[in-house]
Amino acid sequence: MTKLVKQTLRDSKKARWTALVILSFTMFAGYMFTEVISPLKPIMERSLGMNSTDYGFITSAYGIFNVFLLMLIFVGIFLDRFGIRFSTIASALIMIIGGSIKYAAFKGIIGSPDIPMHIPIVNLELTTQVFWAGFGFAVFGVGVEYAGITVSKSVAKWFKGKEMALAMGMQVAIARVGSFAPLAFGAKIANTYDVPTTILIVVVFLILGLLGFFYYNTLDKKLETQIEEEANSSGEDQFKLSDLLVIFGNLGFWLIALLCVFFYSTVFPFYKYGPDLMVNKFGVSEEWAGLLPSLVPFGTMLLTPIFGSIYDKKGKGASIMILGSVLLMIVHVIFYLPFITNVVAAFFNVILLGIAFSLVPSAMWPSVPKIIPERQLGSAYAVIFWVQNFGLWGIPLAVGIVLDNTNPGVAEAKAAGEAVTYDYQTTWTIFVGLTILAFLTALWLKAEDKRKAYGLELPNIKK
Fold first, then answer.
1. So what's the pLDDT on residue 303?
2. What pTM was estimated for this model as a whole?
3. Which of 23, 37, 1, 15 is nearest to 396 (CA)?
4. Which pLDDT does position 328 carry in this prediction?
5. Domains of the chain from N-terminus onward
6. Which of the 8 DSSP states describes residue 61?
7. Cα 111 from Cα 105, distance rounded (Å)
8. Which portions of the chain are predicted below pLDDT 70?
9. In degrees, to the nearest 5, what angle opens at C-alpha 172 toward C-alphas 155 and 255?
10. CA separation for the pair 245, 308 (Å, rounded)
11. pLDDT value for 271
């Protein structure tokens, strides 16, 4: 006798894609806040008297708590232990708290640009305003990464055995619009109003994202009541610390984690310093300096779903990651070369970066469920995000420090209104080195997939 297959809410295309859009909106808001000051470095130097090290500290603070307090490990365990609905609300609230602290620092409500303080661990001299702005961003970083792993697990839940790579690609695409908006228009808004107002606008979007998560939870609860043993709450969400051994002992998992940190460390910090590079190397006006870097997320929102759909139907996930790594290496070598200063060349190079940034994530995130069992998926994504945060913390800070040290006196001259520029060539060797490591890791991952038969080269859709 043929066994009847019970239909659930995720079998409805309308329901699962509606859930995806709601999840994606909150990540859209989170990505907006992540990049809200990325095009504002020249404005902050001129209007707030900050230098590259100050800017590097604030932007790198994103990963401090995630890395050194192991917050991503903890939130991954919370996700697997307490479930998706708890984690959506908790992550959104943390984002709002962190975003509000950062706004208050820039507004002068807490901290001061005139009170110095010393950070002994990294031997930095900062102001209390810079410290609290970084502190708020560090709190926000915990929340947005928590939201990211929660959304990843949620998408895997709704699209299991269906268009998972396409769905994850669409989620990334919608979220990346959030990166595009401040990069493209943030400097214009900041010049029209001021830096604190620009930040406040995005905090409002974070609040709207929290409301979206409340609505999503009603759908998630309906789905969970429909699923029997496949999504048994006591089975899926129950988590034991010993389950971490399944993750830590898997070489394929660690290769994806390393690829993630090397790859993203050459893209997200580019959002932070790309606009300033456009001003100093390619002669773009500071008001529109973020426009070219904004093409990266704009391109990914178009291409990532396409590459995800190819992975769903044709497979070749490991090969897609290798191709993306090769393109990324080419991009940063071109940015490094000192004789390439034409803005047209920068335009086409940014387009190439957008293609590379579409290829790797479209295959990398859907590959994790092929390597790690579903019960440990939340913690697996959390560990990957934790490793990634080493790069998101360390690289922006390193770039800022190297930029100041190789360009002595430039920040002070800019603050005084002098027409001087930064030389980025030495600094850019950081990005070139990381792309080489990403490429080598992608090659190793493909070899490991062939040895262990994870199925990274196989389609995701089960016929």
1. 81
2. 0.75
3. 37
4. 94
5. 14-224+231-452 (1.20.1250.20)
6. G
7. 6
8. 1-6, 120-123, 227-243, 462-463
9. 80
10. 30
11. 85
